[in-house]
Design brief:
Structural class: alpha+beta
Order of helices and strands: EEEEEEEHEEEHH
Distance between the termini: 44 Å
Strand content: 35-45%
């Protein structure tokens, strides 16, 4: 596919939408809309057999949802993935990780968005005070036994695709360890 032209049709501090004029492999022309968002970090805080989740209101679906801590740098900036993960963990939960292991990369919605995310396992955790952004003031954070997390996923109480995919990366990581 060849990009013939591009124009930004919308932008705010969190995202931009662009429309590309394209030429397909068969020579026909068309358009492609792309939601541009910065890459994010998702963190699985693990303490023995329990994980830390956050719950917040997700405006687009009109519901409060439990998920792993995750986020992007402010103002659509690029950020070092490990530093971003440490910042998001501290902001949303107050936790600090003594050890951070990258588990993998996720594409959020590659058919319409450029956003990708890196998944980190955070261990050797110490408690502290959260530093939430203004938009996160209604956020809650709690520890859950892993068995409860799996039940919540099975019962569609946790539906955040990134959190479910990240948990799969954790399981694969654990199965690869001697």
């Amino acid at each position: 596919m060849e990009t013939l032209g591009t124009r930004q049709v919308y932008a705010n501090p969190w995202m931009a939408v662009r429309e590309d004029e394209i030429r397909r492999a068969d020579g026909t022309n068309g358009i492609y809309g792309v939601v541009e968002k910065p890459d994010f970090a998702l963190i699985i805080p693990l303490d023995g057999e329990r994980v830390r989740l956050v719950e917040q209101y997700r405006y687009p679906i009109g519901m409060r949802r439990w998920e792993f801590p995750q986020g992007t740098a402010p103002d659509r900036e690029d950020s070092d993935p490990v530093e971003l993960a440490a910042r998001e963990l501290r902001e949303e939960t107050g936790l600090r990780a003594g050890r951070m292991i990258e588990l993998g990369v996720l594409d959020v919605a590659p058919g319409m968005s450029s956003q990708r995310g890196r998944v980190f396992l955070a261990t050797e955790l110490t408690e502290g005070f959260h530093e939430r952004e203004h938009e996160e003031q209604d956020m809650r954070s709690a520890w859950f036994p892993r068995a409860d997390l799996e039940t919540m996923i099975a019962k569609s109480e946790i539906t955040d695709a990134q959190s479910i995919a990240a948990y799969t990366l954790l399981l694969l990581h654990e199965h690869s360890q001697p």
